[in-house]
Amino acid sequence: MRKKVLQILPMYDPKGEEILRRGADVVYTDRYDEDHLCQMVQGVHAIVLRAPAKITRRIIEAADCLEVISGAGVGVDNIDVLAATERGIPVLHAPHLNNNATAEHTVALMLSLSKMVVAGDRAMRRHQFSARDGMRTMELRGKRLGLVGFGRIAQRVAEIARQGFGMQVMMYVRTVDERRRQRAEELQVQLTTDLAELFSTSDIVSLHVPLTPETRHMVNRDILDRMQPHALLINTARGGVVDHDALYQALKEKKLAGAALDVFDPEPPEPLELFQMEQVITTPHIGGLTREATEQTAVTVAENVLKVLHGQKVDTVSNPEVFQDR
Ligand code: NAP
Questions:
Q1: Closest by Cα among 35, 206, 5, 202 to 104
Q2: Interval between CA 164 and ligand 1 midpoint (Å)
């Protein structure tokens, strides 16, 4: 029997949709209110959804033969994982396929800020060629890049910065162990457990930690005050890691020279004055959205949903405990 998949909103790439359609009967909806979805899940074996659609406990409890739920990308914060786990339903996602994409976007923002690409473009659009007289850009070679976090994206940024630009790289970790020390040696970077040191000595600071209660507003007034007046801040991690009011004040008071933000809290963001500042660059959370990463993500999601429907285990599961008894 062919299984039935409910697809809510388009996947990140049509290749994933093709794979799903080849392996199952796909029902598509772009309506995602709870009542509608409670009806749609009847007779459905799998759900593939994309934010802002949400799978709530009520929807999961309304399903009669649901075997698997999958987010369309990295996040599962729009799925009630606990309710799914209680019913033994695996919740899949496709983590880490956009690491390189996000690292490259970080570097793009670092170059755009330090070379004043966006400010220059804005001046040209206003026919202000003479703006160049007051513009002094910054070279990256020999500068200190401070990376907050030592995960996959931070390490890829470190590689590019060290090998590509000859920057000195310092990375903030909560604890240092032998494995990290060795990896830091391979990457030719310095580790620190002192966040204040990293902010006060870096020419560019870039954030690469998840949003947790511990990291929410980690970049606050106190830490921003420690930055050097010529220093730049980049956030491609999560919007909530930065206190945007504090960043606005710090930029106004010239505690740092500029900031580039790809992520916001909430998304889409409120129209803050911060985003209108000349020394601020923003992009609409596109760090991970390369053609390559979105295609690989959609294909992985579709293939893994079909595998679970055929009784196989996959390792891209956010609640692996549901596979334990199988
Ligand atoms: P990862 O490999 O899981 O690494 C996360 C790192 O953060 C780890 O080194 C972890 O250290 C560290 N960390 C966690 N809490 C910390 C804290 N309180 N203080 C210091 N370090 C802490 O993550 P990743 O794949 O590199 O992703 C990094 C960020 O990028 C995430 O916020 C992710 O959501 C974001 N992201 C954004 C985009 C985009 O489109 N802009 C795309 C992909 C990912 P431990 O090992 O000690 O826990």
A1: 206
A2: 23
